[in-house]
């Protein structure tokens, strides 16, 4: 199976068909040992959830364990950097999120080169994003939420899974387009961001639909 390093952008079950296809004779022994699947975010988020489903299916299909290792921090840069520096032998996979594409434009220096250090396999999943609020907020739709924020400048904050994630960028687009006085609070993953919103610490959160449904 080539290339030896796998950059799974979101990953989906649809990718399993190509990965599980009959391999050339020279690659039939792969994998000969357990394979590490790196998730650069905290457990419980969309990337982590899908990575665990995919790892299980890959293990069942290819006959060797695929185990998930969560390495959160720096909006995915820490885990991605470690995956990029792993031995190029096909035994380290990266389950990447949109930050893999966005981070090179947000950070002046990265410990990896996404074009040279990682080999993409497929873009397999697209996820709808939603804005959710703690039930204590008197807003039941986006129009009411915007009106509430405008009536209380500087009072409210919103959580996301980290700087540069889809949730962060969508929140900033809303804030800038409507001139809202709203503070962004980044977390090391969507799961802790949603937990903060549920607890009322950051009463607004941007996340994928799957993450929001899990919290509900």
Task: Provide the descriptors you would attach to this structure in a database record.
216 residues; D-Maltodextrin-Binding Protein, domain 2; 2 domains; five-stranded parallel β-sheet; four-stranded mixed β-sheet; 8 helices; disordered N terminus
Q: Can you walk through the features of this model?
A:
This protein is an alpha/beta fold. The protein folds into two domains: 118 residues, 3-Layer(aba) Sandwich (D-Maltodextrin-Binding Protein, domain 2), CATH 3.40.190.150; 87 residues, D-Maltodextrin-Binding Protein, domain 2. It is 37% helix and 19% strand. It is built from eight helices and nine strands. The strands form two sheets. It has a five-stranded parallel sheet with strand order 3-2-4-1-5, with helices on both faces. Strand 7, helix 6 and strand 8 form a beta-alpha-beta unit. The radius of gyration is 19 Å and the shape is elongated.
